[in-house]
Write a structure and sequence with these properties.
The complex is a heterodimer of chains A (about 400) and B (about 325). Chain A is mainly α and about 400 residues long. Chain A has one domain (about 50-360): Formate dehydrogenase/DMSO reductase fold (Up-down Bundle), CATH 1.20.1630. Helix content of chain A is about 70%, strand content about 0%. Chain A is globular and about 70 Å long. Chain B is an alpha+beta fold. The N and C termini of chain B lie far apart (about 70 Å). Classes of the chains: A mainly alpha (about 400), B alpha+beta (about 325). Chains A and B meet through α2, α4, α5, α6 and α7 of A and α3, α4, β6, α7 and α8 of B.
Chain lengths: ~400, ~325
């Protein structure tokens, strides 16, 4: 599989300039949080200690980055070579996704400068679910960086020309890159297996987190099988996320959508989403929580939107051959399921949470929305920059022509 | 008769829980501090306080005593604690107060009921189980205490607490703390004194002592005045048992003591965690299955090549 930087177009197009401006405004609100504190920037309270940043930036971010490990498993463990084209963009998304999970978390932590504490053995607390999540996410982030490193090596091997240093030093750097590339190539199977294992662990444990609050979380959402639901829904959202970003970047970069790959990839979606739906429905029937389905309230409304409209409907859409063959319909189905996952994570962490002494409900503050928006734009910005300068996307005819010209 | 049955089932419950947590679970992580503490029965040596809400007159002396013993709480005007207008609202503890007294008007006409709230100091605290850096810990004596030097400010303890007790210093920019009643652990308990609020109460609403004795005392009071008290000690079993317990003349839900099941909250999450990491077998097993699948699928695709050749061919694993 040949990959090439997608630099046919100028980087700072008009759209990118607008995106950068909005991104900087959003990040400005992040700076405001650091200077003025959580109390000034957020609507978090003693009743709602976890809010939009945890529900969306962290929990949803982790779920939507699942495409990295599901695609790696598909291609390298189940040896479906056909899907090799999606590996690099999915890996890039996962790497950026997890990086910004950590960045988003920094803004949410009251003492962000102490984020390294879980690394100290003297502070390890093995009974804590969050401890496991923290360690797994940290390790997986490093695995992702190592998995991505060969792409950077590939870009620069034979092309190291750092200005202002001697040719000897340049060739030393070049040699270093070659060694790194070789070593990483040899240990890649280990990294891929470790990545899948770490992902399964922390994706499920994110669901275990709120199991400790059965009296706060609405019964439609609290379940002893929350970890299973979180794992299954994350595995199921991997491919829709890859489809979505492939279609979006094809549009942004004026490339033809790779339906040759995306349509067969979408064939897995009905199965993966279906297993998740069956498990959640079975749990609801067995524990009898279906009685809440017709009890008016926020959580019930949420459930119908999140599970009915944004999980079951896209599942039906993915079952249709026509939907899978059409770029537009695939984008709609994938987008709906992605929204469903986002709403599900937000429901579990704050939307369906009702503390015993609720004085007022929690509506995220402007700064919370703005920073979340800014961080999402930041991911898009980095994605765009990476595919512009690094060989991430499959080499299209046009980009081959471009590289031909420069040589 | 009734009493013995409760205590038996209580012991059974607790034993079941210990078995759950202690035997199946903690072994995998027995090198981690805190895991072993869970294996002993925390109710045995716990100190406790029994609050008899029927005696409380709402003088708020306990609030004042608490404010005075904790110098890092904000200084309030002297007449604040004699101001009864605060009773117009139902307050909660926050970063400026570790304990509050509220007034409730029972549904049946009668005298108002005053209830003091503070950290319940659970026997199986959800906050301690939740904290990923061990900033919260339960002392063997019963106090659940907080160490701000370890805290990273994730506030998961607040999400975990079923009584909604821990409060956060949201107004602090750089060094926000989780704030809650300390049981006067450092200031008085370790010196052999009773908590400041207990000592300050003019009506002897609160009794401090060993948990087992206080439960016996509470049952005795209920037995002597069955028409006066609700036939239950709130906190004896709630969330697995708490160190602070209540007697009341009206149903506990009417005085904002939430209905909580008897199952300890860490009992929901810790068995899952410890089963997942039992001797690291499940993660390693998953790795082995994945590696096996990887090897098998590779061979199936390249059946004519021998092993070495096949793996060499597939060093194109660079993404």
């Amino acid at each position: 599989m040949k990959h090439a930087p997608a630099n046919g177009k100028q980087f700072f197009t008009r759209g990118m300039r607008l995106l950068t401006a909005l991104m900087l405004i959003g990040l400005g609100f992040g700076a405001y949080r650091l200077i003025a504190g959580l109390g000034a920037a957020t609507n978090l309270s003693n009743q709602y200690p976890l809010g939009l940043w945890i529900g969306l930036d962290v929990a949803t971010g982790v779920a939507l980055a699942a495409g990295g490990f599901t695609s790696a498993a598909l291609v390298y463990i189940f040896n479906r070579e056909h899907f090799h084209a999606v590996i690099r963009p999915a890996l890039l998304t996962a790497m950026l996704g997890y990086t910004f999970v950590a960045v988003g978390l920094l803004f949410d932590l009251g003492r962000w400068y102490a984020i390294w504490h879980p690394m100290l053995p003297s502070m390890w607390q093995g009974n804590s679910v969050l401890f496991e999540v923290a360690i797994c996410v940290m390790l997986y982030l490093n695995v992702l960086y190592l998995e991505f490193a060969p792409i950077i090596c590939e870009r620069f091997i034979g092309r190291v020309r750092v200005p202002g240093i001697s040719p000897g030093l340049n060739s030393t750097i070049d040699l270093g890159l070659r060694v790194a590339s070789h070593v990483l190539g040899r240990i890649m199977p280990v990294l891929i297996i470790a990545g899948v294992m770490l992902s399964c662990l922390h994706q499920s444990s994110l669901g275990t987190l709120m199991m400790i609050a059965p009296y706060k979380l609405h019964p439609l959402y609290w379940s002893q099988f929350l970890p299973l639901f979180f794992l299954l829904s994350a595995i199921a959202v991997g491919f829709p996320m890859i489809i979505m970003e492939s279609l979006l970047s094809a549009r942004a970069l004026n490339r033809t959508p790779e339906m040759r790959v995306l349509t067969p990839l979408a064939r897995y979606c009905p199965w993966l989403i279906g297993i998740y739906i069956v498990c959640r429905t079975a749990d609801m029937l067995l524990r009898g929580t279906w009685v809440f389905l017709f009890e008016p309230g926020t959580a019930t409304f949420l459930f119908w939107i999140e599970f009915g409209l944004l999980t079951v409907v896209p599942w039906c859409l993915f079952m249709s051959r026509d939907v899978r063959a059409s770029a537009r319909a695939l984008a709609i189905a994938s987008g709906m399921y992605i929204l469903g996952i986002a709403l599900n994570r937000c429901a579990v962490f704050f939307l369906a949470v009702k503390p015993p002494y609720t004085e007022h409900s929690y509506i995220p503050a402007l700064a919370e929305f703005a920073l979340t928006f800014g961080l999402i734009l930041c991911i898009i910005f980095c994605y765009r920059a990476a595919v512009h300068w690094l060989p991430v996307l499959p080499a299209s005819d046009q980009s081959l022509r471009n590289t031909g010209k420069t040589h | 008769m009734d009493v013995t049955r409760t205590s038996n089932s209580d012991r059974m419950n607790r034993r079941g829980f210990i078995k759950h947590i202690g035997l199946t679970g903690a072994m995998a992580l027995s090198s981690v501090p805190g895991a072993q503490a869970q294996q002993r029965n925390p109710a045995e040596q716990s100190l406790a306080v029994l609050v008899d809400t029927t005696l409380c007159v709402g003088c708020r002396t306990c609030e004042q005593a608490c404010n005075e013993i904790n110098p890092d709480l904000p200084i309030v005007p002297n007449d604040f604690f004699s101001d009864t207008s605060v009773f117009q609202q139902h307050r909660r503890m926050d970063a400026s107060a570790f304990t509050v007294v509220n007034r409730y008007q029972p549904e049946k006409k009668g005298a108002p009921v005053y209830v003091k709230f503070q950290c319940q100091h659970c026997l199986y605290p959800a906050c301690v189980s939740a904290c990923l850096v061990g900033a919260l810990r339960r002392d063997a004596g019963g106090a659940v205490v907080y160490d701000e030097k370890k805290c990273i400010g994730c506030r998961y303890c607040m999400a975990a607490c079923p009584f909604q007790v821990p409060a956060y210093e949201y107004s602090s920019v750089l060094t926000p703390r989780v704030r809650k009643c300390t049981f006067c652990f450092q200031t008085r308990l370790t010196q052999g004194e009773v908590p400041a609020c207990v000592a300050g109460c003019p009506m002897r609403v609160m009794t401090f002592g060993s948990r087992a004795e206080l439960i016996a005392m509470g049952r005795e009071r209920i037995r002597k005045n069955p028409e006066k008290y609700v036939q239950q000690i709130y906190g004896e079993h709630e969330a697995g048992g708490t160190a602070w317990m209540y007697l009341a003349a009206v149903p506990f839900e009417q005085i904002d003591l939430p209905r909580i099941g008897y199952h300890p909250l860490p009992g929901y999450t810790e068995p899952v965690q410890h089963a997942l990491f039992k001797w690291f077998l499940p993660p390693l097993g998953l790795c082995a299955i994945l590696a096996g699948a990887m090897w098998y699928n590779k061979r199936r695709k390249n059946p004519d090549k021998d092993d070495g050749q096949a793996s060499k061919n597939n060093t194109d694993l660079t993404p």
